[in-house]
Design brief:
- The structure is a single chain.
- A seven-stranded mixed sheet has the order 1-7-6-5-2-3-4.
- The chain has helices spanning 25-40, 43-47, 52-63, 71-85, 90-108, 115-125, 166-175, 189-199; strands at residues 2-3, 12-15, 129-134, 151-154, 182-186, 202-206, 221-223.
- It is α/β, with parallel strands linked by helices.
- Helix content is 42%, strand content 12%.
Length: 233
Amino acid sequence: MRFNKPISTIRAISFDLDDTLYDNRPIIIAAVQAMTDHLNAIPKWRAKGETFWLQCRDQALKQDWTLAENATRWRQAALHLGFTILGYEHDAATDATQRAYQAFADARSNIVVSDSVIDLLTQLRRKFHIIAITNGNVEVEKFNLRNSFDLVLRAGIDGRAKPHPELYHLACQHFNITPEQLLHVGDSLDTDVQGAHRAGASSVWLRNNFTQYRYQGLANIEIDNIQMLKNMM
């Protein structure tokens, strides 16, 4: 555990989910494959070729840049656009979109978080409010993190995506605390650490060497393993 900057008295700890409390890489791969398999079973979609999905994603974003802050809406909008291009009427495209997205969502939340992480959150919860703040579209209620948080905030549904400070401020308002009393834990310097700092909160960076980051600010604390948070109890 490396301390870069002091922190104030903490009353709540918020956690990113993907790649912070579990390895999200194999989960995303499986979810994308499940959706791809579903779409490729539709002859018209399969005939468009392997790049059709990416073309739909790009075109949907060009039509509505706000989709970038809501992973669920973006995926659904791209699917709906794709089915519309294939000639589906609006209602039929909506139904097809729902089925294709459900194939993704079911696999996306097929997660088993380790008992050691669940135990860590349980122990921390005896002393702090425990919050989830995620930019992703995982559905916490569908796997074994469902009872681990006092509050779950999801980008797009509850507010603007990290690093915008809105979700952090909502968490503080919910528990009637100041941003200085919130500590956010996450694997991304660009979203988690930068977002916490923009909100006036402190941060813990779970060092992630898989990504190149633009944000040059220092997290208050750096850790290599989530279990190092036991030192805060």
